[in-house]
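hey so i finally got around to running the thing on that chain from the lab meeting. sorry it took forever, my laptop kept dying and i had to restart like 3 times. anyway pasting the input first so we r on the same page abt which one it is
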Amino acid sequence: MPPAATVRTQVPVPLRFHDGYTVTARVITFAGLVDGREHLALALGAADRPVPLVRPHSECLTGDVFGSERCDCGPQLREAAERIATAGGYLLYLRQEGRGIGLYAKLDAYALQDTGLDTYEANLALGHDADARDYTVAAQMLGALGVDRVALLSNNPDKADQLTRLGVTVAERIPTGVHLSPANAGYLATKARRAAHTLHLAR
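ok and heres what got predicted. didnt touch it at all, straight out
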């Protein structure tokens, strides 16, 4: 089990997405997270349900903020906000850009992808792990919120495996939608092929 974290601040924040969807989140900050970064939990809907719907979402400046179609992060964030607000639960916004390698390194990886490497090969070519994300802080955040059992909104089996090892019971794993575009088709196919993401792509 990871060391305990505590809730630091809670404040209501109205959210508005590019398509006009609005919802108010209770944004929660924490003390004692093992990596010292400023991760957030967004409580949406009736978050205190016995088995809340939870999505650990890794920060993606290019997708979440600028609407890049090289990935599916922005659409997944938008989908998660509405689904969690409807079901009740938490969106964990984790500051681990580029699957944990950082923003500049992610853009370096994009440059390598433009020469023919896939997203995992590019990270490895830069001397990083193919996926360097560690969900210890997610488990700490859930612990601070009094949550030890979740319905996990994710296509990524590694999230479920890591949370389980960290003492969080994943009662159910619920896939997100497939947000396919011409710009991200290869990226999504690579995630399905190399990391067993639950993505049913048309052949």
